[in-house]
Amino acid sequence: MEGEPTLRLRVFDLNCWAIRYLSKRRQERVRLIGDTLCREGFDLVLLQEVWSERDYSDLRVKLAGCYPFSHYFRSGVIGSGLCVFSRFPILDTLLYQYSLNGYPYMLQHGDWFCGKSVGVSMGVTAPLLSLSLQLHAEYCREKDAYLPHRLVQAWELAQFIRHTSKAADVVLLGGDLNMHPEDVGIRLLRGWTGLRDAFAEARHFEGCKNGCTLVPDNCFTDKSELLPFPLGIRIDYVLYKAISSFTVKCEELKTTTGPAPGTDIPFSDHEAVMATLHIQRQGQPVGATLGTADLALADVVTEARTEVSVGLRAAQRQRYSSGRMAVLALLLLLLQAAAALGILAGLGTEQPFPKLSFCLLAFLALGVLVLATGLHLFHTMEVKILRGTEDQMWMALRALQERP
Amino acid sequence: MEGEPTLRLRVFDLNCWAIRYLSKRRQERVRLIGDTLCREGFDLVLLQEVWSERDYSDLRVKLAGCYPFSHYFRSGVIGSGLCVFSRFPILDTLLYQYSLNGYPYMLQHGDWFCGKSVGVSMGVTAPLLSLSLQLHAEYCREKDAYLPHRLVQAWELAQFIRHTSKAADVVLLGGDLNMHPEDVGIRLLRGWTGLRDAFAEARHFEGCKNGCTLVPDNCFTDKSELLPFPLGIRIDYVLYKAISSFTVKCEELKTTTGPAPGTDIPFSDHEAVMATLHIQRQGQPVGATLGTADLALADVVTEARTEVSVGLRAAQRQRYSSGRMAVLALLLLLLQAAAALGILAGLGTEQPFPKLSFCLLAFLALGVLVLATGLHLFHTMEVKILRGTEDQMWMALRALQERP
Fold first, then answer.
1. Pathway involvement (chains A, B) (predicted)?
2. Which pLDDT band, with edges at 50, 70 and 90, does A289 fall under?
């Protein structure tokens, strides 16, 4: 049905890097982002790392005219940092928090405190299910301790999309996935959901080379981190798929390059991704496109499952060592209690230790006991979730193999 | 289309109360449950509070013949306690953890450690989306401090069902909701999702009076808790709805009463709920049945939102007082550090405090600081989630009011 009208949807996605007190020239940049969004008049804006609710409120006030509908997703101690602005009504929202998101004691990485999640908003434009999200950051590519966590997140995200997307005609995902295009997590997400990469599908592209969104030319990026990648890396994506009797095509994809027009600074340390999609109703429902690549998909799931297993073994080791530490601290405490009781009962003829050292040691043992118990509980939870994901992936593999 | 074949689905739901070391005669009861399930041959079995993976494994081995498909949902420190056994293949599973689930420091209530969640399994029978779940327990009906948490859970559950159920033809929910039939959480869940209560809809009922599932006659229940309810209470439910071109009718509902056949003990402290459903394909899709009761639904959402606001204010107070406590502890520590430095620098002519008391006080302040900071972070998270839920409910109310 070529005669059906086409809906042209312009989407803006940006990791705003708006961390209070930490991000450079934050307020200026947020103001700049707001001005540009007002001027450009997109249909849908997906923002990440808007950590301060104050920044969101400011943006909402400024954008009320051109984007009358918006939502801020609250979660974690600091927040999810996710928000959505839309020219079309937002009918419903849902927040899904990943089960695993780093370690609370890795204070310098802070992911745990952010409650990283995926924010889903249902709009009336199609209906369109749009997801804004961010996955766990990669701090060291060579020795990536968070890979299993990021894979669990990619898997949960894929499962979540599979289960929620039936309610929509079009699924649109924009966000900072913290993964390179060829990484196993991206392949898993794309393969398991059937989502297509706007960069690969776009008829026309304009922007940073290879669609990179974290580039050395940006004055806010950490140059030393990008040394192995002189062109930069692509970690921010717009992904999409049509569910029922619709087709989606990416007409154009752009990234920002360099400073925002009329200023000396870029919007953020990430480049923004802007996609123009054409959505059209088809005569008959489009069949599932998944089946054709089942074998390749099975390989990806197997690869991801191997990485999750590696993470599981590491988590088991940490659970064991923190448990052992807790037991040792408890034993020391009991020993000290016994000694103290003995002295009180007059069994010992004299006090063998100076009181102060005795007391300090007891407090130290108590502190270690509390900390090690906390760690043990945390890693127990981690083991459960990693094992649960391993199980689910195994079930997925079986389902893939049993397909005719 | 009266000629379409009817699928008869027999469902078994039970809160098994199988807590290692704590539940009375646990192993005997789990064995009994397994024997009965084998003998009765249900189509779908939804179990809660199977806390030990060992019990699940034993059940799986025993039931392998009659229920070849099963899944155990892992989450939290202890686990979710949820599992599913099915005569039909389980195609896919998903675990959704509620954002709020009690307080980690309420050790005697333990809900926080269980990672209460809803386990979703997709089967091929229809396709059927079956959910097994448990909400936060009610420990004191008169002064129910957990009501806001349970309402957030009911709301998240309802939102989750609305977003995932489009992929299915029939949604079936079985579990211990820890709410009486007329409680606001149940009305919210039923109203917002359109789920129907098998007890209210059943053509034929057999079992405890009023369908109660926690009855004083059960030898494992706490009689003092049930004093205000001489007949018992109904907190375990089977709820269902048809999504697309299907109809579901509840032909029969049963609860267990008293000891299991041939023994002197019941299966659990809860009674089991057994439903026989008739699922039939219709000629044309059934329209949404939701619209008719929009006004009543708006009232329920408003009531729930009020309760969530009450919880929000309490959480804000707790966040404030724990924050204040942390600041005071920090001040005390700084003061002590200053005093210690002063003495070291030789400013004080003599040591004003005994060393031991000084040291003890410092450790006490440090302990209070760590605890109060932890509490502050936790309540900050709680405030965010309660406020997020309030927002979502407000959005729902607006959508309800704007409907023609």
1. Lipid metabolism; sphingolipid metabolism; Sphingolipid metabolism
2. very low
**Strand-by-strand arrangement of the A236-242 sheet:** A90-97, A117-123, A128-134, A170-176, A236-242, A196-197
Distance of CA B142 to the CA centre of its chain: 20
Q: Is B77 close to A381, i.e. CB distance below 8 A?
A: yes
B261: DSSP letter: T
> For the residues A285-306, what does the mean pLDDT come to?
71
Q: Which residue has the tokens 């923002």?
A: A47
Phi and psi at residue B272, in whole multiples of 5°?
A: -80, 150
- Give me the residue from A113, A122, A360 closest to B359, CB to CB: A360
Indicate if the alpha-carbon torsion angle B139, B145, B148, B153 is positive or negative.
Answer: negative
- Residue A241 CB partners (closer than 8 Å, separation 6+): A165, A170, A171, A193, A194, A195, A196, A248
What's the CA angle centered on B117, arms A241 and A398, to 5 degrees?
A: 55
CB A11 within 8 A of CB A44: yes
3-class DSSP state of A243:
coil
Tell me which residue of B374, B365, B300, B291 sits closest to B334, measured CA to CA.
Answer: B365
Contact partners, residue A305, CB within 8 Å, separation at least 6: A390, A393, A394, A397
Question: Which positions of chain B have pLDDT values less than 50?
Answer: 1-2, 125-126, 287-291
Chain A residues with at least one Cβ partner in B under 8 Å: 71, 73-77, 79, 90-97, 99, 113, 115, 120, 122, 159-160, 162-167, 355-356, 359-360, 363, 377, 380-381, 384-385, 387-388, 391-392, 395-396, 399
- The string of pLDDT tens digits covering residues B81-124 is 889 999 888 877 777 777 776 666 666 666 666 656 666 666 55
Give me the total of CB pairs closer than 8 Å, taking one residue from chain A and one from chain B. 106
Token digits of residue B334: 């700084």
Q: pLDDT (tens digit, 9 = 90+) per residue, B9-20?
A: 999 999 999 988
Q: State the complex-level ipTM.
A: 0.70
Distance to chain B for A231, nearest Cα, Å: 39
Measure the CA–CA gap between B395 and A71, rounded to whole angstroms: 10
B-chain residues within 8 Å CB-CB of A115?
A: 381
Q: Which two tokens stand for residue B127?
A: 């396709």
pLDDT at A395: 82
Adjacent-strand bridge partners of B85: B45, B70
Q: How far apart are CA B374 and CA B379, in angstroms?
A: 9
Nearest to B128 by CA among B7, B24, B38, B221: B7
3-state secondary structure of B241: strand
Q: Are A13 and A174 in contact (CB under 8 A)?
A: yes
Q: Phi and psi dihedrals of A11, rounded to 5? A: -115, 140
CA distance A56 to A62: 10
